[in-house]
Design brief:
The structure is a homodimer of 199-residue chains. The first copy, chain A, is mainly alpha-helical. Chain A is built from nine helices and no strands. Chain A binds a DNA duplex (18 and 18 nucleotides) through helix 1 and helix 3.
DNA sequence: GTCTATACAAAGATAGAC
DNA sequence: GTCTATCTTTGTATAGAC
């Protein structure tokens, strides 16, 4: 009946979970999905694999959970930029250029990880379905944001698809060679991709 | 002194090498770099790993050799399209759109493989250097093709970087869900990215 | 040059004790 | 809930016979 000294059981469990997730994010970012081992993930969080498996069904679930977080984070960041910049397109494009480099250069940056996991999921039907569903919902969220610039919803979706592909490709290239992808690459490409048809 | 009945020793060796490479291309395309095993590559070509290792130093060399072929193939295809379409931009953009889907849908399509290998190479300095060198040379080849549309060489390089990122990203997405990436996605994006600044 | 056999190392996952 | 120990599989690479 009295409150526990520090943490309730549930809170302690949640904390372990968070520690494991944070560790997984780091390990995956550094070594990729195939390259990162659940063993190291657990160890870096201060646990053993046994503990990890009592919180997650396996490597896949670990990754998918992080994947959801990432996508949500990207969408939040995008909305923030759009809100903050209002109708000033140039400011927004510049902010997106900076966002790309910030993500790519951060220690927990996921450059190339989405593609690697997609490639891995290609031969695993249920996994692929899950990831595809998430990606389509993210694409549509972006399409909604740019729909007023597009002549149709289908066109907005197409543009969103291109923007996502571009973002992922540049993220990877920036990681490989930062100098070859200054913020202006993404900013400039966005400006062109989103230019109003003036014909 | 007399010509051999069927194959010279050198030709036989070259043939084995080609068989192994073709098999590797297939296996990597189907199962990715991490997912594909040298064992299966050898077996599918009709050999054992022992034979494979007498032709290649290992998995990396196998992949890098194929990677060079791919890049050269892409560059040839690009030049052909540019030559064939002359100054008709719309025809060229449409042809590039079709090229993307052809590559993505082909049995030996390498969707996502470049990224996967890049991600893998990130933690292997010598490998990364090799791949980066090849990628930069390819980027510059593309930049030369579009340099007359760009205000400067640096700008041409930037645009080429964006185009490559876009191509790789769309290739992957097309593989995951073909319906979400019709040819027009790449064609339209190219048109916008390469639009002459009219300001 | 190719094959058989094997060395060697990891990784993912599970069982059962505490 | 966490740990220790282990199972099981798999993969790269090498050695030596033919």
């Amino acid at each position: 009946m009295s409150p526990p000294l520090r943490l309730t059981r549930a809170a302690a469990k949640a904390r372990t979970r968070e520690l494991l997730l944070a560790s997984a994010a780091q390990v995956f970012a550094e070594q990729g999905y195939a390259g990162g081992s659940v063993d190291e993930i657990a160890a870096r969080a201060g646990y053993t694999i046994g503990a990890l498996y009592s919180h997650f069904s396996g490597k896949d679930e670990l990754f998918l959970t992080l994947f959801d977080d990432r996508v949500a984070g990207h969408l939040r960041a995008i909305e923030e930029i759009v809100e903050h910049c209002g109708v000033d397109d140039d400011a927004a494009f510049a902010a997106f250029g900076d966002y790309l480099t910030t993500v790519a250069d951060s220690r927990s940056g996921w450059s190339g990880l989405e593609s690697e996991f997609l490639r891995y999921a290609l031969t695993r039907a249920e996994l692929l379905a899950k990831v595809t569903e998430r990606r389509e919902s993210a694409r549509d969220a972006i399409a909604r944001l740019i729909s007023r610039r597009a002549p149709s919803w289908a066109d907005a979706q197409i543009t969103a698809t291109a923007i996502i592909a571009l973002f992922e490709g540049l993220l990877m290239q920036r990681r490989v060679n930062p100098a070859s992808v200054p913020p202006v690459v993404f900013a400039g490409a966005l400006r062109r991709l989103l230019a109003q048809a003036t014909s």
